[in-house]
Every structure is written in C-alpha cells, then in structure tokens.
Amino acid sequence: MRFLLLLAAMAIASSFSADIPAAYDQPFRPQFHFSPREHWTNDPNGLVYFDGEYHLFFQYNPFGDKWGHMSWGHAVSTDLLHWTELPAALKEENGIMIFTGSAVVDSQNTSRFCIGNKPCLVAVYTGYTPQRGSLPSVQTQNVAYSNDRGRTWTKYSRNPVLDLHMTDFRDPKVFWFEPTRRWIMAVSLPNDHKVRFYSSTNLKNWSFLSDYGLAGAATGQWECPELFELPVEEGGSRWVLKIGLNPGARQGGSGEQYFIGQFDGKQFKNDNPASTTLWTDYGKDCYCALTFNGLPANRPPVMIGWMSNWQYATSLPTSPWRGQMTFPRRLWLSRTRDGIRVFQKPINMIEQLRSVHVDASGRLVAETNSKLKSSNITSNITKQHTFELISTIGFGTAREFGWRILQQNGVVTVVGYDRNKGSLFIDRRHSGLVGFSPQFPSRMDAPLRVSGSLELEILVDRSSVEVFANGGQIAMTSLVFPPAEANAIEAYTRGGNPSTISAVLWGFKSTHD
Length: 513
Ligand code: FRU
Description:
Blueprint: H1 2-15, E1 39-50, E2 53-61, E3 71-77, E4 84-90, E5 97-106, E6 120-129, E7 138-146, E8 154-155, E9 162-166, E10 170-177, E11 182-189, E12 194-200, E13 207-213, E14 221-231, E15 237-246, E16 255-263, E17 268-270, E18 278-279, E19 287-291, E20 302-306, E21 321-322, E22 329-336, E23 339-346, E24 354-359, H2 365-374, H3 376-382, E25 386-394, E26 400-408, E27 411-418, E28 423-430, E29 443-447, E30 453-461, E31 464-469, E32 474-479, E33 488-494, E34 501-508
Parallel strand pairs: 1-21
Antiparallel strand pairs: 1-2, 2-3, 3-4, 5-6, 6-7, 7-8, 7-9, 10-11, 11-12, 12-13, 14-15, 15-16, 16-17, 16-18, 19-20, 20-22, 22-23, 24-34, 25-30, 25-34, 26-27, 26-33, 27-28, 28-29, 30-31, 31-32
The structure holds beta-D-fructofuranose (FRU).
Beta-D-fructofuranose binds at residues 42-43, 59, 70, 99-100, 126, 170-171, 223-224, 288.
C-alpha cells in the first residue's frame, strides 16, 4: 500500500516540471510565458510566422536589465508554447538603437531582397539616434532583411526609408493589403496623437495615405499602433486600430485603446463616435501588443503583449531578466449590448500544457473550498504557482464573489466580481512584493454587465495573473510577486451565496523542461 502511495506521489510529482533548468527556475520566473534568459525586454516586435516557425522578436538590451542599447532579441517556436532564444537579430549600431517594429514575409520578392526569388523576411523598424550635442534625437523608419529564416539580418544600405526629421515618429506596423496589392504601414506621431498610414509596393518607397487621430484617449504619447482585420462572430469583419498610450491609460501609466471601423486601403474610418474609448485590456500590464503576420488563412489572429507598465517596468524584482510577454491570445470581434467589441482568449494550444486537475464544483462556496482543500493534488498544483482556474459562478444572492489566490498569512491576490457595480476586478494591493513602486499596489477594474452567472478563466504563472471573463469579453493582465509559500486558493463570497460554482483547477507543465 505504502509503495502504491509512493508511486502515486511520484506520478503526481513527475507530471509537474521537476526538471526545470536552473537558468529558468528563479523566483518569479515565468514557466509558460516567454521571458528572455537574461537582461531587459519591453515590447514584442516583428511577430511573424514563416516556414513552420513563429518568430518573436522583442525590444532587448543585450547588456543589462535596464532599458538601453535597444536591439531586437529573438526567439522561435513551432507551437507558440515552447520558445528557443536565439542570438539578438538586429543590434544597435553606430549609436543608432533599434526600436519597435514589425516583420513581414515577402513571398513575392517585392523588395528584391530575397535571394533566388524565394520568400524572405523583411523587418521594418524605427531607428533611434539619441541627441548629439545640440542636435535633437531623431526617429526614422528603416528596413532589414533575412534570407536564412531570421537567423541573420542585413540592414538596407539606403536606410532610412522614411525620415520626417522628427524626434518622435515610431513603431511601424506593416502588413500586406491584398485588395490594392500594397504594403500598408501604420506608424505613430506620438505627440500629435495621430497614426499615419503609408503604402508601398516594394517596402522601400513609401507614399503618404492619411492620418487618423485625436480620438478616444489622447493623453500621453501614442505608440505601437497596429491596424488589423478581425472576423465578427455573427459574420463579416471589421478593422481594428489599436494604439498604446503612455502615460494616460485607464488604469494608470501605459495601456492600450482601440477603434473599430473600416479600412479601404487608404483611410481608417471609425464606426463609433470619436469620443468612444475602448480598451484592449483592463489590467495594468499589457502593453504594445502585436499580432502575427504571415499566419495561414485558416488560423485566427494571435496577439502577444509586453506584460508590464512603464510606471514601474525598470523596478520589477526579478533577476537575471526583467520583462516578459503575455500568453498568446486569439482575437475576434463579437457583438455585446454596447456594440461590437474585441474578444480575446488564450490560444487553444494552451490545453497541451495542462497536467493534473481538481474538479471543485459545488453548490456552495464551502463545498468548493472543501473539495479544493481535501484534494492533495491541489497543493501540488498551487505550490508551483503555475496553474489555470476555469470557473462559472452563478450569482445566487451573492453581492460580490470570486477567487482568492496565491494566498498565505495576509498575502492575497483577489479576482472578484462586484454585482452592484457591474465590475470585475483584480486586487493586488496585498499580493506580496509591492513596495518597489508606489504605482504597483493597485486594484484594477473593468466594467462588465452579465446576468445570472460569470465565467472566468484565470492563468497564473509565478509572477502574472491573466483573467479572461465572460467568454473573452474582458481581459485583465496583472503582474504579481507573491512569496513562495503563498499557495492557498479559495472561492469567496460577500453579502449572500452564489447559486452554483463550477470550477476546475489545472496544473500546468513548464515549457522549459
Ligand atoms: C513602447 C516604446 C516604443 C519604442 C520602444 C523603445 O514601449 O516606447 O514606442 O519603440 O518602446 O524601447
């Protein structure tokens, strides 16, 4: 009997990642989100699928864990789950840093950069020349190409391809627009709160198309614009123009808004009044998200964001790396009572990360909690700080309900729903290490009106919590830095009892082992 118990315990242990390499096993090190092995990262760049590989480039400082010497780090994956980090792709040169941008597959060799007329990769990025003496800093748009599946890159000899002699002009997102057979670039004029559109037939010569701006939230600087088409669940499609703001986002610091409308190859037209402000993510920690170029037509659009906020990004208590990406999310549009909105959910491949689970469904909170407590699998799952919780909670008479996770001795992260306010929230004020910045401890909230019950999918990965509510209508992303022993998880309620709780807790495999 003892032997059987031992075997069972070993089976449970081995279904977790006992073999995480030391380089990826520090406190707070994400186990299924991308983070560089060492050093600083911010925005994802140049997301592109090519020849069976997903490429994730990222703003990267090859020399340290603070912003500086910006280059494009590089990682590849065949499944969007397991990433292999490669040497930096585009490096600072002659004091010119490589800022954010995008990458395309030039399948028809429109650029004449592709050897042997085979498809090649072309990156379009901002070159940043810092202030020199009395000369102000300059941002220009540049291109580089690779004929070996992104392993090595050549900067175009006649860079820059766009130069407005401006200090702030950055973050080009380029995509192919089939109806006009042109490359389209969306690029930001950050201080004017405008996105400028250009077109090109060869990725080198760019013609001005139009400006879109001074709409929605026009505070701070506008950065990282992106225009992409999304299917609408009820049929048809719309164009989404997404823009990063820093500072001035809804939760403070950096965050992203979007507009929904039409694009005719020249101009973006907003379907909503210019004053309508929509947010892609209601947490503090999803910025400069980017979708993949080059995905096969039958795959849904996939987006990855930088999981941080400029308010405190340089102070995060992690080492030897600083910065990580969100889990890849599939995007679509769906009609809500307020109109068509962006929906997002973790990509379906997430299922491959699931190991063991506990079904803690119950009629009462107490029943759910006793199921969680009595299963010895629960603590095996939660002590890893890498898990997924999928639940649907019927309102019943509860005024507020939800989950307390990563909990111990007063440390807790709360994911809850306040029925009276119609508001979903993450409260990380007591989530562990919060004192490294006065802007970190916070309670983030999202307006969400649902009737009867609330569906939640919560991803936890050592130093992050991502919440997807009501079938993907709301996404909330939040960093947290709990102590190792904060392993308890429980449902809670206030002011009454939920009618039913269905809840499944999944342990996750590490993608590093
Ligand atoms: C956004 C951003 C971009 C810029 C990059 C520099 O986080 O400020 O606008 O290209 O970071 O690292």
